[in-house]
Amino acid sequence: MGRLDGRTAIITGTAQGTGETLARVFAEEGARLVLGDVQEERGRAVAKEIGDEAAFVRLDVSSEADWKRTVATAVDRFGGVDVLVNNAAILLLKPFDEISSEEFLRIVQVNQLGPFLGMQAVFPIMKERDGGSIINIASTDGIKGMNGVAAYASSKWAVRGLTKSAAIELGRYAIRVNAVCPEAGNPNMSAPFFPGNPDLTDVPHQMMQKILKDPKPVVPGSRLRDVANMALFLASDESRSCTGGDFVVDAGLTVGWYQDGVPSA
Fold this sequence. Notes:
- There is one protein chain.
- With about 260 residues, the chain is α/β, with parallel strands linked by helices.
- The protein has a single domain (about 10-250), classed as Rossmann fold (3-Layer(aba) Sandwich), CATH 3.40.50.720.
- Helices cover about 40% and strands about 15% of the residues.
- The protein contains 6 helices and 7 strands, in the order E-H-E-H-E-H-E-H-E-H-E-H-E.
- It has helices at about 15-30, 40-50, 65-80, 100-130, 150-170, 220-235, and strands at about 10, 30-35, 55-60, 85, 130-135, 175-180, 245-250.
- It has a 7-stranded parallel β-sheet with strand order 3-2-1-4-5-6-7, sandwiched between helices.
- Strand 6, helix 6 and strand 7 (about 245-250) form a beta-alpha-beta unit.
- Helix 1 (about 15-30) packs parallel to helix 2, helix 1 (about 15-30) packs across helix 6 and helix 4 packs parallel to helix 5 (about 150-170).
- The radius of gyration is 18 Å and the shape is globular.
- The termini are far apart.
């Protein structure tokens, strides 16, 4: 028996990276899926590989009309919506003083407005079904600061604020709202901002370079699966008492810094 048997989940940004991994992990646990992305060819391929229990829709998360169509697909195809995972996001790496207002607002439209519209779109359905789980994929950049990510980081801080406020308002309808804050995402999101647009698929994330040293070999994609497993926990009944929380998956990246020279283990 799967942990999500009989449940329908909408997941955004499923054509690659974290979203694709989320879709495959949820499918393994019995979920029926509506997968959304603006990358239609790859998104449809992922849904086809998963099988009949997955439907793909072209979804621009900043479009209210697209959200209405996506929720309607979930209702028509599978009878409702039990889980929403707001994963779709875009990245901008640029010096603070060079970011244009248009660039900043584009980040806000996708990374902040997108989850907001998604939550509004599924709320009536979840309310009718006496509950549900909303999972917003934030980032460790929404917990700490870093150079070059002023627009992106501020959008992820906003996602955390949205999560907490919505958790308070929607809890009376047994709708839980949580944020997952991973360090590991799709590494190639960063590639366009580096000379030559390098393939960063096999470049280790900071996850394995900080506090938690895993003695086992790092299997490609395994860190994304760690993130997906956290979302799976939040989508399942195992997390019935969890709402409004920040669930960090970063191997200790945001805990602090190991000070060389200080007596310790």
